[in-house]
Amino acid sequence: MENEREKNVEDRIELEDVKEERKKDEELSVERISEGEVPSWRKQLTLRAFAVSFLLSVMFCFVVMKLSLTTGIIPSLNVSAGLLGFFFVQTWTKLIAKSGMLGQPFTCQENTVIQTCVIASSGVAFSGGFGSYLFGMSERIAQQSEDTKDAFDYKNPALGWMISFLFVVSFIGLFAVLPLRKIIIIDFKLKYASGTETAHLINSFHTPEGAKLAKKQVRALGKFFSFSFLWGFFQWFFTAGGDCGFASFPTFGLQAYEHKFFFDFSATYVGVGMICPHIINVSVLVGGILSWGIMWPLLKLEKFLKENLCKKIPQIFIGIAMILGDGSYNFVKARAGTLARLLIKLHETKAKSQIPVKNHSSPSIKSQSYDNQRRSQLFLKDQIPKWFAIGGYLSTAAISTATLPHIFHHHKWYQITVIYIFAPTLAFCNAFGCGLTGWSSASMYGILAILTIGAWGGASHGGVMARLVACGVIMSITAPASDLMQDFKTGYMTLASPRSIFVSQVIGTAMGCVISPCVFWIFYKAFPDIGYATSEYPAPFATVYYTMARLGVEGFSPLPKHCLKLCCVFFAAAILINLIRDILGKKRSWFIPLPMAMGIPFFLGSYFAIDMCVGSLILYIWQKVNKAKADAFGPAVASGLICGDGMWTLPNSILALAGVRPPICMKFISRATNSRVDKFLGS
């Protein structure tokens, strides 16, 4: 025992020393790079970088698609993209170096290009709305949300129009904020937490001590990737029918299972729980207990609300009310804070001399640290002309305005024109807000479009479709805008050229416009029940977005008598909880759950919340036992669990398309049911 303790202490000291060295090396890494020559922006864009980016984009698109079609909770994958990009290209360069054909070494700028391309590509899987507004346009979602006799318009998924739609809307947001990169990154010095963290990580990879730790992290990621993939493969053998397999294991008993309380052995959501903050995991579990554990059994809402829209999905409206209440409060709060801080930043900027574009000295540059001087000079060196950004925005907006009415016949060109008039403002607000808070509000801007912009069309004139299309256009503008600024921040700190970052973002977006629809199409064809509540992939937010669009067209009149009252109560409760959290402050509000996270299990159940809390508990215990090791390897382990299980969906889909069915159905039934089955079989 004493030897084991001594070994644990030695391991902990060693890891802490490695982390200290890594931190020191990262601080010195930019100075080391600046002593040599930083590759030109063209040399940062290599064939191997985009080859690796394509492979990682396919993997991450499967991961994001699975998360979008199950719960809609998608953690940040920037660190995973940077780590895997480093591993693949480092392996590539070593193999090439042995053959004596290495053209140029692997730099942190090239690593940044890979990370940017992968996140841009997988980001389309989110902003493309495959788990929300785009799938919400389908007949399958419409049939679950309304009586089939109602003649509402719909548009079923097809590869042709989905790829065309993404190509005409996904690039506009990039041009909308491109002229503002200097103001946001250098003048305002916004943090962009995820981009900054990724930059520190990439810089540390390219130092001696950091490279050693990165290899260990990649090894851990590979182990848990393999475990997660093989675990998914093993589970497949027992899923020959509905409610079969480990995913239907009644962990807390059959009655709890009927109320969605069980552990479904999902490696994905255990990994998500390890990445998400503890408060989010606990909030989701609290929402599940409140809804499926208390409200639904007591109120029996299936019988209480069985008219019209509440006929098939009674729980969804209360969940929407909580999500809208939380989103509305934080949207107003964030926009007010953004405006106030913007005015402060503008006032501060006027009081200082601007950093020159050329190599002339100025008081602002002299007052900066050596690293920041070097970063600013290189960031401003490769300018992207404003005429290019403005011309790119106008041309892409014109193409989109001319094309979208042909894809969605009820949407008029002047409606799209109005959207593009306000789009740059919304894109800037989202990019600025993301820099302050670390959170993108693209979904809330989409919901805002549903509630406002799409009001031009009535139910008989494609009003539901018009609202969902407006939502899609706004999300496809605001989400890439914040992603681009996040990547500019990473590039600023790794000395990557803005031109290489922008080109990488454009190429990654183009990849995503093809890869994401193809990945979704595989899911759509391989799993015929996708989108239904009983499916492995219920796509809950597709129903949420469709329902909001329909309510925006019809108003509240079709709702049952008590449904609107309950929604108002929970909408107000969400605002009140947020208000209490803000009054108490961060230090004293750590125990108060987040209403938006609480609202998700209202219509999904608590099974994924239990998975996430298991992941959170694993990380918590790990941090108590060995905090240095947990901090160093926790994200790598979580990424391995998520990516391995996500990649299993590819062979799983291929088997389903080929008609290969699992050989065994492992089902759990009560003792009484088992006796009846035995009697039936015996007779």
Notable characteristics:
single chain; 683 residues; mainly alpha; 31 helices; oligopeptide transmembrane transporter activity
Question: What would your notes on this structure say?
Answer:
- Helices cover 73% and strands 0% of the residues.
- It has 683 residues and is mostly helical.
- It is built from 31 helices and no strands.
- The protein has helices spanning 2-35, 41-44, 47-70, 78-98, 108-127, 133-136, 139-145, 159-169, 172-177, 181-187, 193-205, 208-236, 254-258, 267-275, 278-299, 301-304, 316-351, 363-366, 370-381, 386-407, 413-437, 442-451, 463-494, 498-526, 540-554, 563-584, 595-599, 601-604, 607-625, 627-657, 671-682.
- It comes from Sesamum radiatum (Black benniseed).
- It is found in: Membrane.
Write the layout of secondary structure elements.
Elements lengths: L1 H34 L5 H4 L2 H24 L7 H21 L9 H20 L5 H4 L2 H7 L13 H11 L2 H6 L3 H7 L5 H13 L2 H29 L17 H5 L8 H9 L2 H22 L1 H4 L11 H36 L11 H4 L3 H12 L4 H22 L5 H25 L4 H10 L11 H32 L3 H29 L13 H15 L8 H22 L10 H5 L1 H4 L2 H19 L1 H31 L13 H12 L1
Helix pairs in contact: 1-11, 1-12, 1-30, 3-4, 3-5, 3-24, 3-30, 4-5, 4-11, 5-23, 5-24, 7-25, 8-20, 8-24, 11-12, 11-23, 12-30, 14-29, 14-30, 15-29, 17-21, 17-26, 19-23, 20-21, 21-23, 22-23, 23-24, 23-25, 24-30, 29-30
